[in-house]
Specification:
four-stranded antiparallel β-sheet; seven-stranded mixed β-sheet; mainly beta
Length: 119
């Protein structure tokens, strides 16, 4: 089992910045990916940024150059620094950890943190 604790959401004006944090605990030795997803009402959860096991990162195109994912391995924590925020970045951000299990993967989700960007 993996437990995820998120923090850092809030309300910010367009052009501002927020930093999200996600601390993982539990059985993370078989980690495949760790990252952030966003969800808005009526739409599927979408990947925003992710660390892959080999240390590489992926970002959705619309956040490239504005968002930065980083991690502190000693603390099992991943961060999402969001700069130059836009109203379309608004949504609930979920931390995600995917681990290897026999026959495939298992996903774990944080409770979600609301990010609201006002125009």
């Amino acid at each position: 089992q993996v437990q995820l604790e998120e923090s850092g959401g809030g309300l910010v004006q367009a052009g501002g910045s927020l930093r999200l944090s996600c601390a993982a605990s539990g059985s993370i030795s078989n980690l495949n990916t760790m990252g952030w997803f966003r969800q808005v009402p009526g739409k599927q959860r979408e990947l925003v940024a992710v660390f892959i096991r080999d240390g590489s990162t992926n970002y959705i195109d619309r956040v490239k150059g504005r968002f930065t994912i980083s991690r502190d391995n000693a603390k099992n924590t991943v961060y999402l620094q969001m700069d130059s925020l836009k109203p379309e970045d608004t949504g609930v951000y979920y931390c995600n950890v995917r681990t290897y299990v026999t026959g495939g993967y298992r996903n774990y989700w944080g409770q979600g943190t609301q990010v609201t960007v006002s125009s």
